[in-house]
From TrEMBL, chain A:
Coiled coil: none annotated. Keywords: Flavoprotein, FMN, Monooxygenase, Oxidoreductase. Transmembrane segments: none annotated. Belongs to the NtaA/SnaA/DszA monooxygenase family. This is LLM class flavin-dependent oxidoreductase. Residues 20-255 form the Luciferase-like domain. It comes from the Bacteria. InterPro entries: Diverse_substr_monoxygenases (IPR051260), Luciferase-like_dom (IPR011251), Luciferase-like_sf (IPR036661), NTA_MOA (IPR016215). Pfam families: Bac_luciferase (PF00296). SUPFAM superfamilies: Bacterial luciferase-like.
From TrEMBL, chain B:
It comes from Mesorhizobium onobrychidis. The keyword Oxidoreductase applies. It comes from the Bacteria. This is LLM class flavin-dependent oxidoreductase. Gene3D superfamilies: Luciferase-like domain.
Length: 333, 423
């Protein structure tokens, strides 16, 4: 079973004491604990101005990709996934940021591409009229394709570092993208080397029915709200249509066990075991406020129960996020 | 040591394997710099231990050379994206400023303002943004099919961009109260969703030296990064820029002018010369000529005889100030294309000094005291060796002369630089 934790946007569960001042050291401790517990990855939401909301995200004074870079230097195993929107960035810049994060983290970075258009965001990015749902989707699809194309612009063995011969890289192993599409035109290549884990992990979330096709084509990890049996099957079937194997996509179900912690670890473990055994998902994305005591409860009570039931590995199988997720090439698994 | 002597500011300009175009081939250069974060953490700590004001990163959202054969003979086509690099360094250092270049031509102001503010929070008030307008066709081709926008348009966009970013940082742009921004190039509705900067606002740096570039700097910059070869050029630029400040209600101390300097230092002068010659020997001619072409904003300098003079060149839509600087140098010293190319390959048009710690300190002191600089952006020829050498040999010499700090003045970039905290 794969497990991720999300620093959730939303209210703290009642009765939970919020940690004072969400500074970097608190977030670092949170992620280090998640790493010590062997979780696959932490998902960092990116705050956006939510009308009238007093969301947790507002208390995180960081933009997600910069936060990821900082966290990468104080952890060594856990995967780090940052949300970044297709409206707030240009594909070249975003591909480059994540490629760089992947090298900084030695192959532990992922991009969570959310598919929910935020009209408020568009208004801050010189698009006061926003996007139609359909334009947003086609633009996002083109965007993601460019990003993944740029991530593959350098072959893994392109860099020669040949000082005496005077060749830094092999020109044959650098590829222009030369993309010309409906919304973007991008020459490439990226000026960041190939990822240590081949490409950063692409996580997709906030999917509507219409987005399933895009997710099946591009995503490594898909986050779905429950109930999801039919959707998970459907996604894997569609992936076959794009020449991918069903195992190349991991479907994680969003759960917010918050209030149930009081009900005891058995109840929560049952709730995770059932959909996992019935193969309707590959694991879970646990939504939790960035509060150490909430993580402590989950790690201290629920994880041992899952391990007792043989549902959870006890250590990281490799060094990269892809290897944690069972998505790495043969040489790394 | 005099208590209140004006002291120079120093930036440690990080770039790939080094600033010399052939740096990566030097036996002591760390050739894997562009894929090794630990290397950068080490450089950052060296610079911080030497009390540098800031780490400075250049940027280009694209490879530098159009010709892949040329590119493959340099180390400049891969590296870290600087904002993520500095975010990683932010939590591995405690005092040094963190300045990254970012283009107004290939970003949107809201996103960039937010990202730099996040870097500022991660570092406890040590972030800075070096505003550039980007003069490269290769970069432009990564952001649309229409090519490089004309010089004047790029600066028009830059002016509006800077106004929005500072408005957001200073909390003066708030759509909720009806003062969102609706302009020629951009519209922004909301204030930023992050708390105010620990230093009031990240430091604004600017590089760009044409007439419009200087005006924009006089209006918005806290620090100006510039290139000058001779004392006279540097002094003229310094006087001109400081002279423009009054028009914007600012005083001469509100802006720190920090020209680039590429030192090659060793205990003895002959060792320093040897070190420099060793690097010069590693430059392939075609790489040198291609680099020179790019600074002249001309694509095909290689079709002129390499031992002949520089041809007449049309006015540029690219880097006007750097083109003028190169042409001026070629006339002044009567240099052939080959000589000019080799000269520029070492420091890309920046001032280079080769010598002992005392000689280098003398030169820096002369420009600093002579009204040509408030400090310098130091461009080591290769990493880590030449940064180590500057920190170990030149910094103590400057400190002995009372020209450079021995302790940081505070914790934020503005405190080190002696800049006012914005209201
Ligand atoms: C000292 C200096 C450093 C610069 N560094 C960069 C850089 O790192 N990236 C970039 O895209 N442009 C850089 N530029 C280019 C400027 O932003 C600008 O695009 C160019 O100089 C044209 O403007 P100008 O004619 O006003 O100089 C630099 C310019 C100067 C003078």
């Amino acid at each position: 079973m794969h497990l991720a934790v999300s620093l959730a946007q939303g209210e703290a569960p009642s009765g939970v004491q919020a940690d004072a001042g969400l500074d970097f050291s608190l977030l670092a401790r949170f992620v280090q604990k998640a790493e010590a517990a062997g979780l696959d990855m932490v998902l960092l939401a990116d705050s956006a101005p939510v009308a009238g909301g007093d969301a947790w995200s507002r208390q995180v004074p960081f933009e997600a990709t910069t936060l990821l870079a900082a966290l990468a230097t104080v952890t060594s195993r856990i995967g780090l996934v940052a949300a970044a929107s297709t409206v707030a960035h240009q594909p070249y810049n975003l591909a480059r940021r994540f490629a760089s994060l992947d090298i900084i983290s030695h192959g532990r970075a992922g991009w969570n591409a959310t598919m929910v258009p935020d009209p408020r965001e568009a208004a801050n990015f010189s698009r006061p009229e926003g996007f139609s749902r359909d334009d947003f989707r086609r633009r996002a699809e083109e965007f993601i394709g460019i990003v993944q194309g740029l991530w593959r612009g350098w072959d893994a063995d392109a860099l020669l570092f040949d000082k005496s011969g005077g060749r830094f890289f092999d020109p044959e192993k650098m590829h222009l993208l030369d993309h010309k599409g409906e919304f973007f035109s991008v020459r490439g290549p990226l000026n960041v080397a190939r990822s240590p884990q081949d490409t950063p992990v692409l996580v997709m979330s906030g999917l509507s029915e219409h987005d399933m096709e895009i997710a099946a084509r591009f995503a490594d990890v898909i986050l779905l709200d429950e109930p999801l049996d039919a959707k998970a099957d459907d996604l894997k079937r569609r992936a076959l249509g794009f020449g991918r194997s069903p195992g190349e996509i991991k479907v994680l179900m969003n759960v917010a066990p918050g209030a149930e912690t009081a009900a005891g670890p058995d109840v929560i473990a049952d709730r995770l075991e059932e959909p996992f055994r019935s193969k309707s998902c590959d694991g879970f994305n646990i939504l939790m406020p960035p509060v150490l005591s909430v993580l402590d409860d989950f790690v201290g009570l629920v994880l041992p129960e899952l391990r007792r039931r043989g549902l959870l590995r006890s250590d990281y199988p490799g060094a990269t996020l892809r290897s944690h997720l069972g998505l790495a090439g043969e040489e790394e698994q | 040591m005099t208590a209140h002597r004006r002291q120079m500011k120093l930036g440690a300009f990080l770039w790939a394997t080094g600033h010399h175009i052939a740096a990566w081939r030097h036996p002591q250069a760390h050739v894997k710099a562009g894929v090794d974060i630990d290397h950068y953490i080490r450089l950052a700590r060296t610079a911080e231990a030497a009390k540098f004001d800031m780490l400075f990163c250049e940027d280009a959202a694209g490879v530098r050379e159009a010709d892949v054969n040329i590119a493959s003979q340099t180390s400049r086509s891969i590296g870290f994206e600087p904002i993520s690099l500095l975010a990683a360094l932010a939590v591995q250092t405690s005092h040094i400023g963190l300045v990254s270049t970012a283009s107004t031509s290939h970003n949107e102001p809201y996103g960039l303002a937010r990202t730099f503010l996040s870097l500022d929070h991660l570092s406890g008030g040590r972030a800075g943004w070096n505003l550039v307008t980007s003069a490269s066709h290769i970069e432009a081709a990564n952001f649309g099919a229409t090519g490089l926008r004309p010089h004047a348009d790029r600066y028009e966009r830059a002016r509006e961009f800077a106004e929005i970013v500072t408005g957001l940082w200073h909390g003066k742009l708030d759509g909720a109260s009806g003062s969102g921004h609706d302009g020629q190039c951009f519209s922004v509705r909301d204030p930023l969703d992050l708390p105010r900067s620990p230093q009031g606002a990240p430091v604004m740096v600017q590089a760009g030296a044409s007439d419009v570039g200087r005006d924009l700097a006089a209006r918005t910059a806290d620090v100006v990064f510039t290139a000058a070869q001779t004392f006279e050029e540097a002094k003229a630029f310094y006087g001109d820029l400081k002279g423009r400040l009054a028009a914007y209600g600012r005083g001469p101390d509100d802006i720190k002018i920090m020209p680039g300097v590429a030192p090659v230092v060793a205990e003895t002068e002959s060792e320093a010369r040897e070190k420099y010659e060793e690097l010069q020997e590693l430059i392939p001619d075609d790489v040198g000529v291609a680099l020179l072409s790019s600074y002249l904003s001309i694509s095909d300098l290689s079709r002129y005889p390499i031992d002949g003079p520089l041809p007449e060149l049309p006015a540029s839509e690219g880097m006007q100030s750097r083109q003028a600087l190169v042409i001026e140098q070629s006339r002044r010293d009567n240099l052939s294309i080959r000589q000019l190319a080799r000269h520029f390959a070492g420091a890309r048009g920046h001032w280079r000094i080769v010598g002992t710690p005392a000689q280098i300190a003398d030169e820096l002191e002369a420009r600093f005291e002579g009204g040509a600089a408030d400090g310098f952006n130091v461009m080591p020829s290769y990493f880590p060796g030449e940064l180590d050498a500057f920190a170990a040999l030149v910094v103590p010499e400057l400190q002995r002369r009372g020209l450079f700090r021995t302790e940081y003045e505070g914790r934020t970039s503005r405190e080190h630089l002696g800049l006012k905290r914005p209201a």
